[in-house]
Design a protein that fits this description.
The protein has 261 residues and is mostly beta strands. The chain has helices at residues 2-25, 62-67, and strands at 39-43, 45-48, 53-60, 71-79, 84-91, 96-101, 111-120, 130-133, 136-141, 146-150, 154-159, 181-185, 194-200, 207-211, 214-218, 223-228, 235-239, 247-252, 255-260.
Length: 261
């Protein structure tokens, strides 16, 4: 029994060292969740005013709920080419809040990305405070109804301290990398009239997407809208980005649906 236990612990110690060695040789592509400093991070969200769309952002007061702290929210808007448009910062008043994204904020008949950072007023002095905002975006086409989907991936972070914050729309929350990935969307696209998929490139470097055999390149912070018909039941995506998961819009006559891939 003692020999078995000794062998078990030796094996597990070896596995732990081997895992640490793998992390040194080939580190994890993500840094969020593994850092020892205060930060607030955001998913990449998509706004669109094209083709009769309006967009709303719905978020909750997570700082009050989990940290018992008042907070502001910082919204940063980029166009489809990754160019800075505007930013808004205001106090979070209610447990659930709605922000309308229209031509007063972003260009009309366009699309792009935005990010939402919760900024708590009172950071915990003895603990590392790390906040991720994964809220919901609603899309209405021709003012009929809203279909909601939550954030697609954690894409950006800003560092926090007790007196002020620093932010930049060009700092990603993931490491630079070149990791080949094959991604297949589990959906039968032949049952719809046509489909659109939205991608965002959060890296500083360019990435490529090979969508159903067609090669597309995305520059840093670029948003891509890719349209395809109902000729294939599968949508395959290859990329040098490790998480090429898009948001999907599917259309059937006057109806549409939006969801994660």
């Amino acid at each position: 029994m003692k020999k078995s236990l000794k062998k078990y612990f030796l094996n597990n110690r070896f596995k732990h060292k081997f895992k640490l060695l793998k992390e040194i040789i080939k580190p994890n592509v993500r840094i969020w969740g593994n850092s020892n400093y205060n930060y607030t991070s955001s998913d990449s969200f998509f706004w669109r005013t094209d083709n009769g769309y309006t967009t709303i952002f719905r978020y909750s007061d997570i700082a009050k709920k989990y940290l018992n702290s008042d907070s502001d929210i910082l919204l940063i808007f980029l166009d489809d080419n990754g160019k800075y448009i505007d930013e808004k910062i205001f106090k979070v008043h209610n447990s659930v809040n709605t922000f309308i994204i229209d031509s007063k904020i972003v260009p009309d008949n366009r699309f792009g990305s935005f990010f939402a950072f919760i900024l708590p007023k009172d950071l915990l002095s003895k603990k590392t405070t790390q906040i991720t905002n994964r809220c919901y975006v609603g899309y209405s086409k021709d003012n009929i109804f809203y279909s909601f989907v939550h954030g697609n991936e954690i894409a950006k972070l800003i560092k926090l301290n007790r007196k002020k914050y620093k932010h930049t729309s060009s700092v990603p929350a993931i490491r630079e990398h070149n990791k080949h990935t094959s991604y297949y969307i589990q959906k039968d696209f032949t049952t719809f009239d046509y489909n659109e998929i939205f991608f965002f490139n959060p890296l500083k470097q360019n990435i490529f997407l090979k969508i159903n055999g067609e090669m597309v390149n995305l520059i840093s912070n670029q948003t891509l809208k890719y349209k395809f018909g109902n000729e294939s039941s599968v949508c395959s995506i290859e990329s040098n980005y490790f998480w090429p998961r898009p948001i999907v819009f599917s259309y059937l006559r006057e109806y549409f649906d939006v969801h994660h891939a």
